[in-house]
Design goal:
heterodimer; A: 205 residues; mainly alpha; 0% strand; globular; B: 797 residues; alpha/beta; seven-stranded mixed sheet; six-stranded mixed β-barrel; 29% helix; disordered N terminus
């Protein structure tokens, strides 16, 4: 009887731990911590490349993610490409490092600042609620390739987010197919870059 | 993996914003009056994506680059900011501050109600009470009141204050914080080619062969322009960068050459380059003979000089002199000389606070033009001397609207009788209303407040109790005066105020800015300001109206009507001093349409409002061409680009002092700064900024991402000095000057490295007021103080 109780309590503890662990994995679309919204999960101390929350390092959908790590000196941004260049992805312990999706910009630090302070510290609290990530692209039927639910400006390299280093929920199941855009086309209603001319056409053709 | 069944949606803590009743009231008013109800109008180019997200254009809230942004609004709140692909300035790229500009609106301690100090405590009050208190104070003694404004004022905001103070009260004590950043550049241009604002434009950055930085750090301060230059290298273009500075920064990392110079040595270096060019004969004689005269003297007038006399005058500036006073070795000086001596090399010189916040700021500005004029590297694509502006509208508002003690709108000055007459006519005020005596510049203004010679002041969109130099000397008595502050957050200045007015911020109001390259940009209001916050323009007009009711004659126009009288298309009066009417009216357009004629005299020629609505801004002068198209000007004074250039002249400095179409090459000497390191205070102190924070941090520190990336101020030391003083990163260091002291943590070999014998401190943190330590010595011509040089002692605590 005692052993059963021990077993049950052990199982309960395991299950509780399992729930906690999953609770530590924020569902996609959860508010970004520290922006004033309700904090619903703990932050990993070191970068968590297989975490599922695409919004974890972003103030809003489309914001440049903060760096989940520091770098020596704070001055020389050339170091970024040591790991993040398209060619030089370093794979360590089964973890891939996202290559830069916009290699035509070289001044990484002008947009990506340090995000290593995970304390949630603020100077003054903010009530900002950022644009959420758009969710899945629409598809014509269950087996059709989903449309791209976001703009492609500054996201020329799909594999930066959808490749091996991508967040689990948006990882491509077929990264070995390299011509993404032959099947996945932009969704015109979500193209924030500029209003497409046919949105404004009036009258019959 | 447990999958959650529903995605939890955050419940935002929404401050008081649009409610249905207000919205209906607005809509009704808009329908009733036939004035263009521009406040909620969505222009054709605004993109509506799925699920009610609306994107509209605006210029960025922050620096003088003037990037175009698209602001995403949903359910009455800003939820995202993206770069505007259509903007020729940034082509879709932003920097970390720009991306987070929308976040800055939502700090929980936004000012939402007027506050009046009663028994030492700021207590909530109604707008009526606040307006009454201000009007009563001004009415008692109008000449002893001052207005301190800002390069972050929108164009209509600055214009409203000019009309109120100068055209109404006849009071010229209007000066902006831009006095602290751009005045030397302004007076430099006015003394060199007779009129303010650059000839060149950002397009020159795309074709320059060599870019020279004269004491500035664009990698952090104008990041998008920096990218525009540096990213050319990825396209296979060769662009050489020469970084002349007093400390190694992020900009140095991209430079081909780093030339460290002694503070104030820029005066010697510029003259040294000119001397070497003259001595070697490698000048563009045709160019400067055709387009320049020579001038000697230290003031704004000077005297004529021959080239021969100038060449002789330059003989002081030998390489040995430059090494001694400038700090460059002869080989380093020769590097610069070789560049300018190369007739095929396109060179752009860039500068900002290093040259402007300088006790001889006007002179060093003149000298950099000299170098470009002697070598003929001016007025050509890729070759120009380009003054970078710091604030988003120091050009558009302070300089073009003339919100300076001595100035009037459109390039005019109070001392000029003809200029006053023109303004009196355009403002429809009685002749003789305008005051010919220049008002106080910023340092003098705060000095007068300190001494009680001015009894009150109204501060809008700036934070002088943190940003003025020598704070103890200039701002410690503000709490004994009648200080009115219009702002969006509590600051160290509102801490001293008698009245605090909550203001609308950025896209919570209509607005217009003018950036470094003369590009005027417009935006429409996109969201409601929180609580009872109201537009700065309305605040001033409401006070003006109250003064009109109290019977102040200055608030009457020539016909006896109110100074700010406007009529709609049907000729009915639009009573914009009433908040409901103001909200339903595009007051920006009314004011801008009134202001625009002022800009023609000096050939600033701003574009019509509707053209600015349609475009991503236009660079003035904007003139209608024979085909009826409003055409902007990329390069001023250049034939084929600037419509005011005399045909056949090639380059026409049509405002040249001697009225001969020529600019002036000034013989300005090297002069040591007033305070240099000595035994008691052996270090140079330089102050400045960081990428993450704008000015005094009141907006950017309330963005959690920016705060965490740069949470506190620090002092940078050279590692050699640090070792000698036994200081390591994190150690507490006391910095002391003749004026004050401050304790800060040290940061060594971090983001930047000062030269030996120098330290650097950023000024964004209100708990670390480095301006307690700085001095108010200023350029005698521009009145701009020198924040980059004073003498301090440095010791481990």
């Amino acid at each position: 009887m005692k052993s059963l109780r021990v077993m049950l309590s052990g199982a309960a503890a395991l299950l509780a731990g399992w729930f906690l662990l999953c609770a530590a994995d924020p569902p996609a679309g959860a508010p970004v911590p520290g922006t004033g919204g309700p904090r619903s999960f703990a932050q990993p101390i070191r970068p968590d490349p297989v975490g599922t929350n695409i919004m974890a390092n972003r103030s809003f959908w489309g914001a440049p993610p903060v760096m989940p790590h520091g770098f020596a000196g704070d001055r020389d941004g050339h170091y970024c490409l040591e790991c993040h260049a398209r060619k030089n992805r370093i794979e360590k312990r089964q973890q891939a490092i996202a290559p830069v999706p916009h290699a035509e910009y070289t001044q990484c630090q002008q947009c990506h600042v340090k995000g290593t302070d995970r304390s949630g510290a603020v100077f003054r609290e903010s009530a900002f609620v950022g644009l959420d990530f758009p969710g899945k692209g629409t598809r014509a039927h269950a087996l059709a390739p989903p449309t791209i639910p976001h703009k492609t400006f500054m996201r020329d390299n799909c594999l930066s987010c959808h490749g091996p280093a991508g967040k689990q929920r948006i990882k491509s199941p077929h990264p070995f197919r390299s011509q993404c855009q032959q099947c996945h086309v932009p969704d015109a209603t979500k193209n924030y870059d500029r209003p497409l001319p046919w949105n404004e056409l009036k009258g019959e053709l | 993996m447990i999958r959650s069944k529903s995605r939890p949606r955050p419940k935002p803590d929404v401050p008081m914003q649009t409610n249905r009743r207000d919205f209906l009231k607005q809509a009704a008013l808009a329908a009733a009056s036939s004035v263009l109800a521009g406040t909620m109008v969505r222009p054709a180019h605004a993109a509506e994506g799925a699920d009610g997200l609306v994107w509209q254009k605006a210029p960025c809230r922050f620096c003088g680059t003037g990037c175009g942004v698209m602001v995403g609004v949903k359910n009455g709140r800003v939820v995202a900011v993206q770069g505007d692909l259509e903007s020729p300035v940034n082509r879709g790229l932003l920097c970390v501050k720009g991306y987070h500009a929308g976040v800055a609106l939502y700090g929980k301690d936004r000012l939402t109600t007027p506050l009046i100090r009663k028994d030492g405590k700021l207590t909530p009050a109604s707008w009526e009470e606040a307006i009454e208190a201000i009007a009563q104070h001004i009415f008692k003694d109008p000449p002893k009141f001052a207005f301190y404004g800002s390069g972050q004022w929108t164009i209509p905001e600055g214009y409203t204050v000019m009309k109120f103070m100068k055209g109404g009260l006849g009071n010229n004590h209007v000066d902006p914080n831009a006095r602290l950043c751009m005045a030397s550049a302004v007076v430099g241009m006015v003394t060199t080619y007779g009129v303010d604002e650059p000839s060149g434009c950002y397009d020159d950055l795309d074709t320059a062969d060599t870019v020279i930085l004269w004491g500035n750090n664009p990698a952090e301060m104008h990041p998008v322009l920096w990218s525009r230059i540096v990213d050319r290298r990825l396209k296979g273009q060769k662009v050489e960068i020469i970084d002349m500075g007093t400390r190694r920064t992020r900009s140095t990392e991209e430079a081909d050459h780093y030339l460290e110079f002694i503070p104030q040595g820029d005066l010697a270096i510029a003259n040294g380059i000119c001397h070497a060019l003259v001595k070697s004969g490698k000048l563009d004689r045709d160019w400067f003979t055709k387009h320049c005269n020579f001038r000697k003297g230290g003031d704004a007038d000077g005297e004529a000089m021959t080239f021969e006399d100038y060449a002789k005058w330059l003989e002081t500036y030998t390489p040995e002199f430059v090494q001694k006073f400038g700090g460059l070795r002869p080989a380093q000086l020769q590097l610069l000389v070789d560049r300018f001596a190369d007739p095929n090399r396109k060179i752009v010189s860039l500068w900002c606070m290093g040259m402007n916040q300088h006790t001889r700021g006007t002179w060093i500005n003149n000298l950099v033009y000299n170098v470009h004029f002697l070598s003929g590297k001016f007025g050509k694509p890729g070759s120009t001397a380009f003054s970078l502006t710091g604030q988003p509208s120091a050009c558009g508002t302070c300089r073009e609207v003339g919100t300076l003690g001595h100035a009037l709108p459109g390039g005019r000055i109070v001392a000029n009788e003809e200029h006053r007459k023109q303004c009196e006519e355009l403002w429809n005020v009685p002749a003789g209303r305008l005051n010919p005596k220049p008002g106080h510049h910023a340092v003098a203004l705060f000095d007068a407040l300190q001494k009680g010679e001015l009894t009150g002041a109204w501060v809008q969109v700036t934070n002088p109790a943190q940003s003025m130099p020598n704070l103890n000397g200039l701002t410690s008595k503000l709490n004994e005066r009648f200080l009115v502050v219009s702002d969006v957050y509590p600051t160290v200045t509102t801490d001293q105020a008698a009245v605090v007015l909550p203001s609308a911020m950025w896209v919570e109001k209509n607005g217009m800015f003018g950036n470094s390259e003369r590009r005027t940009q417009q935006w429409f209001k996109m969201v409601e300001p929180p609580g009872h916050a109201r537009d700065d323009v309305w605040q001033v007009i409401a006070v003006a109206r109250r003064l009109f009711e109290l019977g102040h004659p200055g608030m009457k126009n020539k016909d006896g009507g109110f100074l700010f009288s406007f009529k709609d298309a049907e000729g009915r009066p639009v009573e914009i001093w009433k908040w409901d009417v103001f909200k339903a009216t595009n007051v920006d357009k009314l004011l801008f349409d009134e202001y625009r004629p002022f800009t023609l005299m000096k050939k600033y020629a701003l574009a019509p409002y509707d053209e600015l609505v349609k475009s991503r801004g236009m660079r003035w002068p904007v003139v209608k061409n024979p085909e009826g198209v409003w055409k902007e000007t990329a390069r001023r004074f250049v034939e084929g680009e600037d419509p005011y250039v005399k045909p056949g002249s090639g380059v026409d400095f049509y405002w040249g002092k001697l009225k001969d179409g020529k600019a002036l090459i000034w013989a300005r000497p090297y002069e040591a700064p007033p305070e240099v390191p000595d035994e008691k205070f052996p270090f140079w102190l330089c102050t400045g900024r960081v990428l993450e924070h704008w000015h005094t941090g009141t907006m950017t520190r309330r963005v959690p991402q920016l705060h965490r990336a740069m949470p506190r101020a620090y002092v940078e030391l050279n590692p050699g000095d640090a070792a000698r003083l036994n200081i390591a990163t994190g150690d507490k260091v006391k910095i002391t000057s003749r004026r004050g002291e401050l304790v800060l943590p040290a940061w060594i070999n971090g983001r930047s490295t000062p030269a030996r014998g120098a330290v650097f401190v950023p000024f964004f943190a209100e708990e670390s007021l480095i301006n307690l330590v700085t001095l108010e010595a200023h350029c005698p011509l521009s009145k701009e103080p020198d924040y980059k040089k004073c003498a301090v002692a440095v010791a481990k605590v």
